[in-house]
Structure formats: C-alpha cells, structure tokens
Design a protein that fits this description.
By secondary structure, the chain is α+β, with helices and mostly antiparallel strands. The longest helix has 14 residues, at 214-227. Strands 3, 4, 5, 6, 7, 8 and 9 form a seven-stranded antiparallel β-sheet that branches. It is globular. Helix content is 39%, strand content 29%. Strand 6 (149-154) and strand 7 (157-162) form a beta hairpin. It has helices at residues 24-36, 54-66, 70-75, 79-88, 93-101, 163-167, 170-176, 180-192, 214-227, and strands at 12-16, 19-23, 105-117, 122-136, 139-146, 149-154, 157-162, 201-206, 209-212.
C-alpha cells in the first residue's frame, strides 16, 4: 500500500562490558545460522587463544595451517574482529574437521622467514620467505616464496617465476605488439602502482595478547593501493 517496501532483514545486537551494540558480523552469522541449521546459538564458542608476542602469534597461525587445525586457526584470529566466527564455530567445526581429515594432504612449513614492524598495540608482519614441503595423494610437492620469486616442484616438474621476469616476458611483448593502446594502458597501470607500499599481515593486541587481524589486513591492503594513487592516476 502506498508503494512502500517492507524490510524483513533483522539485525543482531551483542552485549559487551554491560553495553549493547549492533554487530555486522554477528548479524551475518545469525542470518546464516537461521538459514542453514536447525540448532540454536551455541551457548559457548571456541574462544580465542592469544600469544605473548607478535612473533609467537605468527608461528601459532603457521602451526595451525601445518596441522590443518581449523579450530586453532580461528582461535588465532583477533576476537575483536572474529568474535562472531569464534562464537558460531561449534555449528560447523565438526563437519569441517571431518572433511579436512579426508583430504589426502600432509605438509610441513619448512621455511619461516618473517620480520615484524610497528609499535604499541599494532604490528605488521612481512613474509620474506616461506616454504612448504609435503605430499598430496601420495605425490611429493614443494612450494616456496622467497622475496619476489615463487618456486614449485610437483611430479618431477619444476616451476620458477620472479616478478622481474614476468614484467619482461617476450611472449607478452609479442602478443601486445599489435595493440599499442593496450600496451600504453598496461604501462600506465604499472607506473601508477609502482609505489604501492609493501602489504603485510596485520596483528593487533587484544586484552594483553596478540592475534592475527584479518579485517585490518584487508583494510590496510586496500589503503596501501589507494595511497599509491594520486587524482590524475
């Protein structure tokens, strides 16, 4: 009546330190719960497991990835950002662990070379080199990143690619040789983003412990791109 459109979407509020707040992440989680499962909201979540130092938080994350430990992966995340995920995790964690157990994958993070920068309750981790060795379905493989170079070995086939090699690929020059407009566009694009600051993994201190912060990592990556662009670009 009267051209109005009813809104059926509900929002979820959470209580924190005696006060109530609307929460985007809890709203998403609660909407998914109502649509996908028949059970109620878990009385208790999986909680968070912080670390004493930023370096220990990164090691804990890599340990959880190495062990395919989904619970620990989620517990390593900043509860200020991933609190809804940690609260609702019991609804799907058992099924996810069962699915992971069937994956024919074993691996080890054999190389861990990273540096931590920042001060106060904020840190940024830059991965200088990381290597993974393992087997998938009985076939050995290895993957490594060292600076701007990526190497991989699988079924006796090896691959190596560095950023400077990709920018000077003769095959690409030959392909775009007859399309000067595209070539000019790619050159302008490369020049515009040449001064993008390095993007790292963001860590935050929460209640005295250190956690990996996925939302802050994403937002800082977007901001790094925006900072590199002026109005003309």
């Amino acid at each position: 009546d009267g051209g109005t459109i009813p809104i059926t979407q509900t929002s979820t509020a959470v209580q924190l330190d005696g006060r109530w707040y609307f929460s985007l992440f809890y709203t998403v989680a609660e909407t998914a719960r109502r649509d996908l499962v028949d059970t109620g909201v878990p009385i208790e979540g999986i909680g968070a497991v912080g670390s004493e130092t930023p370096e220990a938080a990164v090691d804990q994350l890599l340990d959880s990835v190495e062990a395919l430990d989904l619970r620990l992966m989620m517990q390593t995340l900043n509860p200020g950002e991933a609190g809804a995920l940690q609260r609702y995790a019991p609804l799907f964690l058992a099924d996810a662990d069962e699915a992971l157990a069937e994956v024919p994958l074993e691996w080890t993070v054999s190389t861990r070379d990273f540096r931590v920068e920042g001060d106060g309750d904020r840190r940024t981790v830059f991965i200088d080199a990381i290597g993974i060795d393992g087997t998938i379905d009985g076939e050995a493989f290895s993957v490594g990143v060292n600076g701007d170079c990526v190497t991989a070995v699988f079924q006796d086939e090896s691959f190596e690619q560095c950023a400077e090699d990709a920018s000077a690929a003769p095959e690409l020059d030959e392909l775009l040789g007859d399309v000067p407009e595209v070539t000019a566009f790619l050159e302008a694009l490369s020049e515009s983003f040449a001064d993008v600051e390095p993007v790292g993994l963001e860590l935050r201190q929460y209640d005295g412990a250190w956690y990996v912060s996925p939302v802050s990592t994403f937002s800082e990556a977007v901001l790094a791109v925006l900072r590199a662009l002026d109005r003309a670009e």
